[in-house]
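re: the backbone from monday

yeah here it is again, tokenized this time
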């Protein structure tokens, strides 16, 4: 996962990568390790509505999760590092007396490349 930072890998993709340097590893070991790393807060699970659980590194220096733009056509994922929700978070905290610790935002649509290929308007 560290070598593929910025990618959103499935357990099987992680297994395929690890197997290159450690051919004797089993898929069950990879699943157990993923669960442990998730419990430790090193990685987090993503649901990008493609029927697969995907994983990415948690970056402690971010202060918040980054957002994802998911292309419905090519299934590509673009990470948005800017936190555009600061004002909304403050308003929600003020209005509802709710302390927000984190948030996760996914936008689904069509990426620039697919729009060009489809003559999308």
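seq for it, each position gets an aa:
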């Amino acid at each position: 996962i560290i070598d593929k930072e910025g990618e959103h890998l499935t357990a099987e993709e992680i297994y395929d990568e690890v197997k290159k340097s450690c051919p004797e590893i089993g898929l069950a070991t990879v699943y157990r390790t993923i669960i442990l790393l998730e419990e430790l807060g090193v990685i987090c699970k993503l649901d990008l509505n493609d029927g697969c659980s995907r994983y990415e590194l948690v970056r402690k220096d971010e202060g918040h999760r980054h957002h994802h733009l998911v292309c419905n056509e090519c299934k590509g994922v673009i990470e948005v590092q800017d936190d555009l929700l600061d004002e909304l978070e403050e308003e929600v905290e003020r209005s509802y007396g709710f302390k927000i610790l984190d948030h996760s935002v996914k936008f689904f649509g069509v990426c620039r490349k697919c729009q060009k290929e489809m003559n999308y308007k």
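The chain has two domains: 1-58, 62-121. The mean pLDDT is 88.
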